[in-house]
Structures are given as structure tokens and as C-alpha cells.
Amino acid sequence: MEFEGTVYKIMPVTKGTSARGEWQRQDVVFDANEGSFTRKICVTFFNKPDEVAKLREGAAYTVSVNIESREYNGRWYTDVRAWRIQPKAAQAPEMPPMPDMPPIAKEPSYASTPASEVDDLPF
User: What is the pTM of this model?
Assistant: First the structure.
């Protein structure tokens, strides 16, 4: 699953040790715009400190996630884990004309020129 969102808040790192070794997780809250309203989505980055370090609050990203639910003691818990994040492509600003370019000539108007004098042959 994929969504586009703006980083709302980067939460502190949580570290621990399990039977498999040390782990690190960090949650990031995104504002996801869906039409006329905004949703907040908390995404977990598990053992990806380099990716979280690149994120900036207020910046827009395209986030690819896996959603998984599990049961523990009769209660259900849902994880939204990021597996890829890309900066949202910003629109390229319109380029001003180059200063050393000659101005673009206007097309001549043939409305007032008699048809016998119009040169419509190529070069």
C-alpha cells in the first residue's frame, strides 16, 4: 500500500534487545490529504535509522507501507510499517528566458496584406 503525506511529527527512538539481537524502532506521524480532509497516519520504521534521519517535518513524501494486525491476550494490534519512502517530486518551477537569447519575433499579420503579396513559400 502507498500514500502521499507530509511529515507531521518525528517521534523519539525506541531501542531494545530480543532473542534475535538489538532492534530499533521509530514512529513518524504523517498528514495524509484525502480530498477535503486530512488524516494522521503513524508509520513505524523498524531498524531503519538512516531513512528516518533524512526526513524533515513539513516535507512531503510518498510512503510505501505494509499493514499487519496481530492478536495478543484477546486484543488486536495493528502495525503500519514503512518499507520505502521517497520525497514527493516537486513541480519544476517555470524557467525564465535566458538573458543571452534574442527576443522571440512576433508572427507577421497577413490580414492587411493583399493575397498577391504574401510570400508563403518555405525559406
Answer: 0.67
